[in-house]
Amino acid sequence: MLSGLVDVVTLIELGLLGWILYALFTAVYNVYFHPLRRFPGPLAARASNGWKLYMEVFRQESPVHLLQKLHQQYGDVVRIRPNELHFSSANAYHDIYNPSARWDKDRVQYESVGADHSMVSLIPYEEAKQRKAVLKSLFSHRAVSNLQGLVRRKVRPRFLVSSNEAPRTDLFYTQVDHLVQVLKKRNEEGKSSDLLMAFRCMALDAATDFCFGTSLDALEVPEFKAPLLVAMDAALPGFVVMKHFPLLRKIALHLPSWHKETDHPTTTVQAHRHPLPRPSRPPRTQEMVRQQVANVIAHPEILKSQPHATVYHRLLDPEAQQHAHPAAVLFDEANTLMFEATHTVADPTMFGLFHILSNPALHARLLAEIRSVWPDSDSDSDSDNAPRLEVLETLPLLTATIKESLRMAPGIASPLFRVTPASGAVIAGRGVPAGATVGMSIYHVHHNAALFANPEHFDPDRWLQQPQDDKPSKQDNLDQWFVAFSRGPRSCPGKNLAWCEMYILLSTMLRTFDLRLDRTTASDLAWRDCLVPYFTGRHLHAWCLPSKE
């Protein structure tokens, strides 16, 4: 028995020795013989994937800010894993994310999102191209413009049991109008408001209504603590962990739900009665989305009652169905669109509004411009006299302010990594071999001092430069570097909806309220890169006093 135990110990020792020798061999190969060996970077990063894991998970460094430090030390291109490069020179961005690029995404990064069947997580280019083509018409500028009323007050039909049931309509002061009413009520109660969470609630309701034909009514939740949004925010640091521990991600995604409610009345609503219940208590959002998906697949005729096309209409179109698991596709697209919609709109709007309120001269100029097309806001509903999107789009300072807000606060903070094709690539004049993972973050484009003078300064006027002596204006030069929604064939399909919401939201907040900061400082807007910005401070809190003019 003792000899058997010795044999086991010996096997363990030999296994450990073998692992150490393999790790040393791999490190030597990565440093001296790897195809990317000529690119600079920390020695540990060039030798092993463990360096990036250690910095992001254990030291909790913000990846995009860590990259900024590395570029200051190593130059325009830095090797951050044995097979991974990050670029910071301006031209590199268009080399990687250009319309002719047909590069696949980096599997390690995109599988960490946990929505493998959604468009954002489709790795091969051809699969993503097909899905984007299916959804393209839903997010076109024309489609968004025609449905801009969804961001304001409207009459909305509910989902039906069948196409034969008479439609039931309810009047909802939702989205921006609903937000205005909630903020006015809070002011009457002597409360300031967390505008980041308020804007996220509004954006979530608008996006779910636009994409799925029914709203989560997040704005009805006290203190803007909609359970889905709270859960999303709490999950952000987990994206970093899941990226480095894929097995942990798979285990987490397949764990059973230990918190299902069986006694709450809202969870016993029959699927065919209402595919997405809106409970007053914290919802089990994943279960509700699954219920909605199951309902539209089992009863596709109920989609005929919707006043506009939804994501479900497009993905269930027989001509568009090229996927084997429609339920998984609809479920993952629903979750991904809800996640993206809240951050893309709310985060930059909060960031921009803070800088507007911190600059009285800019605030006054913006308000004067908005009042020139919205002179009267006295009505039962503030949107009754509000200008249409097409009018707001003509306001140069408002447009410039939204651009500057998107420049300063990226919707996606992390670099969106791609894999170079079999023929290799030339990026910023540097030859990169086939199969290398490469990327450049939007943050590094928008904060490049060679492109944007004094990049840490919020300055909408940088977008308003006029041409001189028949030369292209500085604005024209800057527009080619405005990449808030990425560029190329895999850019964000929902950018038109985001622009629509930001135009309406920002103009309404400035026209409707006399806004005053509630002890908010720049440090309250500090964020960490967790794929999207994870705000670690207090957020923007403001008093929302109804405007007297």
TrEMBL record:
Cofactor(s), names only, from the UniProt record: heme
PANTHER family xrefs: CYTOCHROME P450, N-ACETYLTRYPTOPHAN 6-HYDROXYLASE IVOC-RELATED
Domain of life (superkingdom): Eukaryota
Family as reported in the entry's similarity comment: Belongs to the cytochrome P450 family.
Full protein name: Cytochrome P450
Record keywords: Heme, Iron, Membrane, Metal-binding, Monooxygenase, Oxidoreductase, Transmembrane, Transmembrane helix
UniProt key word Cell inner membrane: no
SUPFAM superfamilies xrefs: Cytochrome P450
Region (Disordered): 262-284
Organism of derivation: Apiospora hydei
Entry's transmembrane regions: 12-32
PROSITE patterns documented for this protein: CYTOCHROME_P450 (PS00086)
